[in-house]
Backbone:
């Protein structure tokens, strides 16, 4: 290869890499914004630690009968699920606010393309979410596979990378928030586990929660993802304008998450049917 060809290849590579964070460049270059992003990530990590420790203290006081019987690893998972519940509630409310109540992502409300819109508040919310995924992923790997198998590592890994790319580039935050709203099903998942280990698997609350989980999952992780791809389709002229890394992640990550959501939905549906059938047989007996 000639020096001219080598130089041309280098220029192409540099141009391609530079395009990854070309839009809203000041988000990457501005020290203030970098500090804000880092601060929000560390805030997320600190919040997770505080919630974990608070869960241990409050659970021993309020639910000592159930909590005290748990093994060491079960207590770790109990407190860890307290973190995921806190994160789920936070990102669900934040996503609902930014997508529905606020006008930041509404069509025609701003001159910028919808995929290029961001704000200090959305950056802070996404940074806190990254802090959660970092904390939870470290705990999963440290206690692997007690807190979750490879599917959880995959889920957390691609979620964290997607949010980071969006946070640093300032692009596609509307789609990141849509996906994060699907975390609204997490409290029901965790309540199901709490009731199970607490000895309330045959209770009415367990059955009602199972039905709520089924319906919530259908709306937040099946129908919402269908709307996600529909929204991308009708805004594809804008989607094509994002940087290369965001573009590929927008197609790959939601597709992987959709497959995982359908698989988990099938397991939830089977579990719900099994629980309802068992409850009917028990009532007749």
Residues:
């Amino acid at each position: 290869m000639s020096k001219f060809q080598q130089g041309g290849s280098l220029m192409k590579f540099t141009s391609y890499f530079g395009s990854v964070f070309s839009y809203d460049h000041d988000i990457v270059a501005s020290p203030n914004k970098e500090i804000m992003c880092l601060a929000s990530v560390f805030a997320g990590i600190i919040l997770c630690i505080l919630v974990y420790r608070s869960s241990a203290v409050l659970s021993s006081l309020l639910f000592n009968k159930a909590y005290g019987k748990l093994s060491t690893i079960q207590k770790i998972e109990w407190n860890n699920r307290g973190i995921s519940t806190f994160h789920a509630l936070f990102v669900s409310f934040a996503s609902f606010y930014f997508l529905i109540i606020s006008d930041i992502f509404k069509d025609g409300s701003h001159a910028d393309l919808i995929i290029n819109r961001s704000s200090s508040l959305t950056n802070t919310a996404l940074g806190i979410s990254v802090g959660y995924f970092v904390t939870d992923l470290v705990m999963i790997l440290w206690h692997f596979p007690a807190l979750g198998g490879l599917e959880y590592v995959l889920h957390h890994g691609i979620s964290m990378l997607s949010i980071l790319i969006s946070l640093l580039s300032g692009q596609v935050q509307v789609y990141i928030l849509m996906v994060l709203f699907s975390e609204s099903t997490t409290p029901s998942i965790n309540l199901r586990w709490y009731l199970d280990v607490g000895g309330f698997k045959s209770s009415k609350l367990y059955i009602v929660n199972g039905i709520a989980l089924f319906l919530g999952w259908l709306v937040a992780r099946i129908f919402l993802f269908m709307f996600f791809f529909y929204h991308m389709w009708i805004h594809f002229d804008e989607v094509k304008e994002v940087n290369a890394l965001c573009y590929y992640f927008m197609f790959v990550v939601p597709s992987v998450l959709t497959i995982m959501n359908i698989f988990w939905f099938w397991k939830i549906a089977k579990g719900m049917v099994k629980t309802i059938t068992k409850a009917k047989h028990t009532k007749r007996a």
